[in-house]
Write a structure and sequence with these properties.
Largest sheet: 5 strands, parallel
Strand order of the largest sheet: 5-9-10-3-11
Structural class: alpha/beta
Number of strands: 11
Strand content: 15-25%
Oligomer: single chain
Order of helices and strands: EEEHEEHHHHHEEEHEHEE
Radius of gyration: 20 Å
Distance between the termini: 38 Å
Length: 279
């Protein structure tokens, strides 16, 4: 059985810039924020680490593509992880023929904007994960009820309800609310039903982040975020880290940012400058 890491303790990247720079970054268990001016390599560092992992999160104990990770526990060979990026570019013209099923899977998008974005692509896959998450939670609730454990069964639904409450609160200014009787994510706004793909870029971005954290179901995993604040309202930026930790206290956050708002709620000590980890 694959042994998964709880978190990354240290990132080492060899010869990041043509052999002239070496990165050594000691990480905190929960929150790690990489800051620096444009061109210093924040996104490059994150991308190097992600490319060093396989699709399933397997990584070697030796350097691969110049990347070495020290994890806890030390003998783990796999990491559960997700990547959030700030891009919301239209990819309708760049999707390969093998991915054309997405055009049929997302029929509402034609009416929304004639194509779909990278955020829509992420939302589509997260909808599937959200359905799986609900099935798993439902099965565990049934098992607890069969054992007579009513309190434990009720506790299993707390995180999903908290997710719904958080999203309703974030979207309250526009009057959007999650329809809680639906299995997939749908919204109501002044009597109209909205698909997630009809949201604004900022709303899609925060929904992608919250869903990504929720569906990991409290498992230890690493959330890489590359300037996730780009589309977000400043008040959402301030709450971003706290909300992620609330939905999954076992997440380890590794993010790059230009925004001081992201660290305002007590995360200044979690900021590392690129210049401090390169030699």
């Amino acid at each position: 059985m694959a042994k998964y890491a709880n978190y990354i303790k240290r990132i080492e990247i060899d010869s990041l810039w043509s052999g002239k720079k070496h990165v050594v970054w000691e990480l905190n268990r929960q929150v790690n924020i990489l800051s620096g001016s444009n061109g210093q390599g924040k996104s490059t560092i994150l991308n190097k680490v992600v490319r060093g992992l396989s699709a399933g999160g397997e990584f070697p104990s030796h350097m691969l593509k110049g990347v070495k990770l020290d994890v806890e526990p030390e003998d783990a060979k796999w990491i559960r992880y997700d990547v959030i990026r700030s891009l919301d570019t239209n990819i309708a013209q760049t999707v390969s023929e093998g991915e054309n099923y997405l055009r049929q899977a997302l029929p509402t998008l034609g009416a929304v904007g004639g194509g779909f974005s990278l955020l829509d692509f992420q939302l589509y896959h997260l909808q599937r994960k959200f359905l799986d998450y609900q099935v798993n939670i439902g099965n565990r609730i049934i098992a607890e009820l069969q054992q007579g454990n009513t309190d434990a069964a009720q506790q299993l639904s707390v995180q999903k309800k908290r997710f719904q409450d958080i999203v309703d609160d974030l979207f309250s200014e526009t009057g959007k609310k999650i329809i809680r009787t639906e299995n997939e994510i749908r919204f109501t706004q002044i009597g109209e039903t909205l698909m997630p793909y009809q949201l604004s870029s900022g709303e899609k971005q925060i929904l992608v982040i919250m869903l990504t954290v929720l569906v990991e179901d409290n498992q230890p995993y690493v959330l890489f975020m590359d300037e996730p604040e780009v589309s977000l309202h400043i008040e959402w930026q301030k709450r971003l880290i706290d909300l992620c930790l609330e939905l999954n206290p076992n997440v380890q956050i590794i993010l790059t940012t230009h925004s001081p708002a992201v660290v305002m709620n007590g995360w200044v000590d979690s900021v590392t400058e690129v210049s401090d980890i390169t030699v």
